[in-house]
Write a structure and sequence with these properties.
This protein is of the alpha+beta class and 115 residues long. It is built from seven helices and four strands; from the N terminus they run βαβααααααββ. It is globular, with a radius of gyration of 14 Å.
Length: 115
Amino acid sequence: MNTLYGIKSCDTCRKARKALDARGIAYRYHDLREDGLDAGTLARFIDLTGLETLLNTRSTTWRGLDETERQAARDDAERARALILAHPTLLKRPLLDTGETLIVGRARDDYASLD
């Protein structure tokens, strides 16, 4: 089963849900704020896409970190992992986990291959 990771207040996550619903693609929704994120799932995401792809340096959460924390996350992968686990909204959204691949963000045709 596909799992869509996002946050309820994110417009792009809402659009992703509508796109999946319109295509009739089954998925489970995982709210990063309410449901959190575990270390094993994050490690799998990093293995699939890389930390640089996942870390959302344009997010409100990122801007709320002090410069020391932001620099540490840029320089040290373990520190970045710890920050993401503490603040799951540091992940780019939405994330669609198909079990085999992870689609990060949403472009118009990202879900076309799932039909």
